[in-house]
Q: What sequence folds into this?
C-alpha cells in the first residue's frame, strides 16, 4: 500500500499566504522579496514623477520649512503595516557643504546627518518606532536593496528604540564601492561629566576612527569643527526684578522691599492700558552665535575654544520667542478690543428682536424669552465708577478731539474718541459683556441731570458747527451742549449775549472794510476784534460769499429808543457803499446766528421740500425766519434803506448793473461804489423783480428791529428737550448700530496712538484697517433696520481683521521698546512676522491644516552686538541658585541654552574607486566621518555618519 506523503506545514503556510495575497509571479521565492519589489516599484514611480509632478499630485508641506515636502505610501510585510515617506525639496541646497548647516528650516535628519532628500520607513503603530533590533535591520536591508535595484542614491532611515530617544539607523548607497551608514541616539539624563565639555566631545568623535587604546588627548587628529551656541533671554517677568538694596535695609530703616513692589506692566504707558492689560507678545529672544568651520588638532584647542567669549563668533543672529496668543489657534482666548467688539456685534444681533431699551439685557441671553428685567446686570458700584469717569473726572481743558486722529478716521460715521459718546462706547465694551440696558438708562439720566441743573455737558464743545459726519447721537449731544451753554448765558447775561440773550454776528462782504462805529462802555475809541463765522443762503452767489463776525466784548448796540429813524445794531460802515434813496453810508448790521441743525433735522426739511415739489420756493419759505431776522436787522441799522439796498448787501448776484458800465468790472467790485458815482446805476434781477416775490413780501412785513431786540432763532429750551426726548426713546437697534460704529472708530483711534517707531508696514496695516472698517460699517448708516445675516458675517470678519491688526500693534510696540538702540532689527523682525501672517489677515481659519511656526532669524550686525548682549542682564542671586553652570562660553553669566557641534573628518580617496572616469592620479577629498552633537548638560544627542568600503 502506497504511503501517503504529508505536505510540510511550512509549505502549506507559504501557499496559503500566496493565495491570500493573490500573487501570481512564482519567480519570487519569498514574501520578503515581494516586499522589496513593492518598495522598488514605489521608488521607481517617485523617481519617474519628479519633484514637479509630486507637488501636483498632492505632496504635503512639512511644517518646519516652506521648501520641504513629503509623499507617503502604505506597505505591508509579515502581517505588519508600514509607512514609507519620501522627503524632498524644490531647491536642493540644504544640508552639508551648502552653508546652511544651522538653518532652522531643516528637518532633524537633515541637520543630524547632512542629507538633502531621504526616505523614512516606520511601523504604523502608536509609538511609530521599531522596537525589535533584527526587525529594524531587516527592514533597512529591504529598503537598501530596493534603492540599489533602481539605482537610487536616497538615504533611508528607520526609527528605533523609543520615541523620546529620537534614535535612527540608516544607510545610503553612494553609487560606488562605498556606503554611508547612519546612527543616532540620545541621552536624556545623567550625561557623563566628560561629555559636558568640548574636550570630551572631541575625544568621543576621535574614538570612532582611532582604533586603539592609546590616550587620545596625547595624539593629534585633524578634524574640522563647526559650532553654534544658542542663548535665551530670561522671561521678562523674571529679569525685570527690582534689585534689593545693599545691606538688605530700606531707606526708611524697615524691612527690604519686595522685588515685585515697584514693577509695572510692560504696557503701562501704552494707549490701551487704560482699558486692559495686554500680555507681552515677545517672551524673549534666542541669540544664535555660530563659529565657521575651523581645523582642530587636539583636545587642548577645544578647551581654549570653550573659554572663548560669544562676541568672538563669526556670526550672530537673533530670533524672537513669541507668545502663543499671537497664533491663529488663540482666537477667543485673548481679551482685548477685538474680543469685546465681538460681544458688541452679538448685542447688535440681539437688538433686532427688542423694541425698548428697558427690555434689552445682556448678550448672554440670545432668545426673546430670556429678555426680561430680572436678568443679571452690572452691579451698581461698577455703574457708579463708570459714570463718575464719564461725567465728573474730566479734565478742565479738553484737547481737540480731532488732534492726532488718523486721516481716515472721519470716514467712519461714529463719535470722536474723546467725545462723551465715544467714551461711553469704550466703557460699554467692558461693562457686563456689553450689557447696555442699565448703563444707557443711567447715562441718559446723568445727561438730563446736567440739563436740569444747568451744568456743562462734559467732553462736548459748547460752540461751533455740528459735525454731520459723526453719528446722530453725537450730533444730538453737541446740540444739547450748545443749548445748555446758551441757556446758561441767558440766565447769567454773559459777555456773548446781549440784554435779550441773542447771539449776534456782523455780516459784511468779504472784500470790503467795515469802519467800526461802536465804542465800548468805558468810552474807548478802539473797536473790538471780530471773529469770522461764515453764513451762506440759497440765494447767495458763491463768488460773493459773506463773512460774519462776532463781537467779543460787551458792547452797547444802538439807541435804547425804538424809533425807526434812529440807527440801531450797526456793526460799522461797509466801505464806500451808499444807500440808493439817501446820500448816506450803508451800515452792516449785527445779525443772529443761523439755527443749528442735526442730520435728522436736515432730512426732515429735504423731505418737506420733496413733498411740496417747488424746492426753490419752499427753500425760501423754510429760510423765512432767518431772512426776516436779517431784514429787520438791516432796517434797524439803515433806517433809510429800501429793498434794493438789502439785495445789494445780502445777495449781490441779484443786483444787475447797467449795460453802459465799463466792461471788465466784476459784479463784486461793482458793489464797492465811489462817492463820485452816485446813485449807482443798476436794477434787480428778474427773479427778485417778479410779481409776488417772496423776499419783497418778507421785506415789507419785517419790522426794523436790531438783533438784540428780536426773538431768538434758536430756542435752547425747546431744542434741548427734543434732544433728551430722542435719547430717552431711542430704540435698541438704533442705539447699537451707532455704538458699533463708534466703538470700532474709538478703539482704532486708541490703538493708532501707539508708539512703534518707523514701522512703515504697521502704518500701512492701520490704514488698511480704517478703509476696511469704513466699507464694512456702511451697512449701519442707513438709519433703518436693514442689517441682515450677511452683514453680521461681515462684521464678525471685521472683528477677526481687527484682532490681527491689534496683535500686530502690540507686537510692534513691544519690539520698539526692546530695540530702541537697534531700530533696524525691530523693523526686520516685525516685517518678517507680518509677511508670514499676511494670508491670515481678514480670515478665520486660513492655515489651520498646515501649522507653520514663525522662526525667522535676523542677522545681527557688528555694531548691534553690544545692544543685543545688554539684553542678557547678569543673573541675580535668586536666579543663579537654580542654575548649574556646567558649560563654557558664558555671555554675561548666562550659559548656552543649547550647544550644537558638527565634527567632520575628510580623507583623500583615489578616483579609480568610482565608476566614472577621471585623469590618473586625480585625488578627491571625501567626508568619511561626520558627527552631529546637540544638547545641554542634561540632554545630549549624537548622530554619527560613517562612509566605508563594503
A:
Amino acid at each position: 500500500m502506497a504511503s501517503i506523503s504529508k505536505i510540510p506545514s511550512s509549505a502549506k503556510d507559504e501557499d496559503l499566504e500566496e493565495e491570500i495575497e493573490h500573487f501570481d509571479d512564482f519567480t519570487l521565492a519569498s514574501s520578503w522579496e515581494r516586499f522589496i519589489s513593492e518598495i522598488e516599484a514605489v521608488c521607481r514611480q517617485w523617481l519617474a514623477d519628479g519633484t514637479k509632478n509630486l507637488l501636483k499630485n498632492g505632496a504635503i508641506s512639512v511644517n518646519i520649512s516652506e521648501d520641504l515636502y513629503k509623499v507617503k505610501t502604505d506597505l505591508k510585510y509579515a502581517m505588519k503595516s508600514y509607512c514609507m515617506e519620501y522627503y524632498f525639496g524644490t531647491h536642493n541646497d540644504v544640508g552639508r557643504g551648502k552653508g546652511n548647516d544651522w538653518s532652522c528650516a531643516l528637518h532633524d535628519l537633515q541637520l543630524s546627518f547632512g542629507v538633502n532628500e531621504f526616505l523614512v520607513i516606520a511601523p504604523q503603530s502608536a509609538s511609530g518606532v521599531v522596537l525589535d533590533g533584527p526587525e529594524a535591520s531587516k527592514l533597512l536591508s529591504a529598503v537598501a536593496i530596493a534603492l540599489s535595484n533602481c539605482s537610487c542614491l536616497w538615504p533611508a532611515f528607520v526609527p528605533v528604540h523609543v520615541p523620546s530617544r529620537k534614535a535612527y539607523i540608516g544607510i545610503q548607497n553612494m553609487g560606488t564601492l562605498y556606503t554611508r551608514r547612519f546612527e543616532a541616539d540620545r541621552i536624556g539624563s545623567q550625561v557623563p561629566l566628560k561629555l559636558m565639555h568640548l574636550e570630551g566631545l572631541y575625544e568621543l568623535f576621535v574614538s570612532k576612527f582611532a582604533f586603539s587604546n592609546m590616550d587620545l588627548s596625547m595624539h593629534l587628529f585633524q578634524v574640522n569643527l563647526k559650532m553654534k551656541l544658542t542663548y535665551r533671554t530670561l522671561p521678562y517677568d523674571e529679569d525685570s526684578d527690582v534689585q534689593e538694596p545693599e545691606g538688605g535695609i530700606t531707606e526708611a530703616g524697615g524691612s527690604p522691599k519686595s522685588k515685585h513692589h515697584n514693577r509695572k506692566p510692560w504696557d503701562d504707558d501704552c494707549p490701551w492700558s487704560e482699558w486692559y492689560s495686554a500680555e507681552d507678545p515677545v517672551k524673549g529672544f534666542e541669540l544664535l552665535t555660530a563659529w565657521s568651520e575651523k581645523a582642530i588638532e587636539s583636545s587642548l584647542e577645544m578647551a581654549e575654544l570653550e573659554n572663548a567669549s560669544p562676541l568672538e563668533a563669526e556670526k550672530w543672529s537673533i530670533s524672537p520667542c513669541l507668545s502663543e496668543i499671537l497664533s491663529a489657534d488663540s482666537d477667543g482666548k485673548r481679551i482685548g478690543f477685538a474680543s469685546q467688539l465681538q460681544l458688541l456685534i452679538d448685542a447688535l444681533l440681539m437688538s433686532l428682536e427688542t423694541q425698548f431699551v428697558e427690555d434689552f439685557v445682556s448678550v448672554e441671553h440670545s432668545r426673546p424669552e430670556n429678555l426680561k428685567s430680572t436678568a443679571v446686570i452690572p452691579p451698581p458700584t461698577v455703574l457708579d465708577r463708570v459714570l463718575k469717569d464719564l461725567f465728573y473726572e474730566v479734565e478742565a481743558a479738553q484737547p481737540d478731539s480731532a488732534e492726532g486722529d488718523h486721516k481716515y478716521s472721519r470716514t467712519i460715521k461714529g463719535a470722536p474718541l474723546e467725545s462723551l459718546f465715544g467714551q461711553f462706547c469704550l466703557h460699554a465694551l467692558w461693562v457686563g459683556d456689553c450689557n447696555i440696558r442699565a448703563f444707557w438708562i443711567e447715562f441718559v439720566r446723568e445727561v438730563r441731570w446736567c440739563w436740569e441743573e444747568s451744568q456743562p455737558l462734559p467732553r462736548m464743545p459748547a460752540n461751533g458747527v455740528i459735525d454731520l459726519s459723526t453719528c446722530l447721537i453725537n450730533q444730538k449731544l453737541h446740540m444739547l451742549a450748545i443749548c445748555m451753554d446758551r441757556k446758561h448765558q441767558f440766565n447769567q447775561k454773559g459777555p456773548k449775549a446781549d440784554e435779550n440773550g441773542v447771539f449776534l454776528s456782523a455780516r459784511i462782504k468779504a472784500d470790503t472794510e467795515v469802519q467800526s462805529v461802536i465804542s465800548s462802555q468805558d468810552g474807548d475809541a478802539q473797536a473790538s476784534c471780530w471773529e469770522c463765522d461764515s453764513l451762506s443762503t440759497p440765494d447767495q452767489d458763491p463768488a460773493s460769499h459773506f463773512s460774519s463776525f462776532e463781537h467779543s466784548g460787551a458792547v452797547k448796540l444802538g439807541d435804547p429808543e425804538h424809533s425807526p429813524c434812529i440807527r440801531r445794531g450797526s456793526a460799522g460802515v461797509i466801505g464806500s457803499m451808499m444807500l440808493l434813496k439817501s446820500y448816506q453810508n450803508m451800515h452792516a448790521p449785527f445779525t443772529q446766528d443761523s439755527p443749528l441743525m442735526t442730520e435728522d433735522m436736515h432730512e426732515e426739511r429735504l423731505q418737506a421740500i420733496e413733498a411740496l415739489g417747488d424746492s426753490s420756493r419752499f427753500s425760501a419759505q423754510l429760510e423765512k425766519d432767518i431772512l426776516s431776522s436779517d431784514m429787520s436787522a438791516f432796517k434797524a441799522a439803515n433806517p433809510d434803506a429800501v429793498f434794493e439796498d438789502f439785495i445789494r448787501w445780502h445777495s449781490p448776484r441779484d443786483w444787475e448793473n447797467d449795460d453802459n458800465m465799463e466792461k471788465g468790472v466784476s459784479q463784486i467790485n461793482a458793489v464797492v461804489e465811489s462817492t463820485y458815482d452816485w446813485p449807482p446805476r443798476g436794477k434787480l434781477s428778474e427773479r427778485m423783480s417778479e410779481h409776488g416775490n417772496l423776499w419783497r413780501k418778507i421785506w415789507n412785513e419785517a419790522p426794523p428791529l436790531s438783533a438784540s431786540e428780536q426773538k431768538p432763532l434758536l430756542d435752547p429750551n425747546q431744542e434741548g428737550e427734543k434732544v433728551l426726548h430722542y435719547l430717552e426713546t431711542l430704540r435698541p437697534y438704533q442705539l447699537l448700530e451707532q455704538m458699533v460704529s463708534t466703538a470700532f472708530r474709538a478703539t482704532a483711534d486708541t490703538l493708532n496712538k501707539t508708539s512703534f517707531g518707523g514701522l512703515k508696514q504697521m502704518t500701512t496695516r492701520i490704514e488698511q484697517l480704517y478703509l476696511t472698517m469704513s466699507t464694512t460699517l456702511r451697512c449701519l448708516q442707513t438709519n433703518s433696520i436693514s442689517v441682515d445675516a450677511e452683514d453680521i458675517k461681515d462684521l464678525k470678519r471685521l472683528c477677526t481683521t481687527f484682532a490681527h491688526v491689534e496683535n500686530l500693534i502690540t507686537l510692534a510696540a513691544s519690539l520698539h521698546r526692546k530695540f530702541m538702540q537697534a531700530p533696524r532689527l525691530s523693523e526686520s523682525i516685525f516685517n518678517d512676522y507680518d509677511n508670514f501672517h499676511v494670508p491670515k489677515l481678514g480670515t478665520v481659519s486660513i492655515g489651520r491644516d498646515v501649522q507653520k511656526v514663525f522662526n525667522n532669524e535676523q542677522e545681527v550686525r557688528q555694531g548691534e552686538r553690544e545692544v543685543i548682549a545688554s539684553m542678557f542682564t547678569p543673573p541675580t542671586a535668586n536666579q543663579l541658585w537654580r542654575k548649574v553652570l556646567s558649560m563654557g562660553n558664558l555671555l554675561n553669566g548666562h550659559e548656552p541654552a543649547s550647544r550644537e557641534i558638527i565634527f567632520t573628518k575628510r580623507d583623500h580617496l583615489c578616483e579609480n574607486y568610482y565608476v566614472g572616469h577621471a585623469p590618473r592620479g586625480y585625488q578627491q577629498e571625501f567626508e568619511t566621518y561626520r558627527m552631529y552633537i546637540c544638547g545641554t548638560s542634561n540632554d545630549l544627542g549624537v548622530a554619527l555618519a560613517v562612509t566605508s568600503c563594503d
Notes: The CA atoms of residues 397 and 459 lie 9 Å apart. The mean pLDDT is 78.
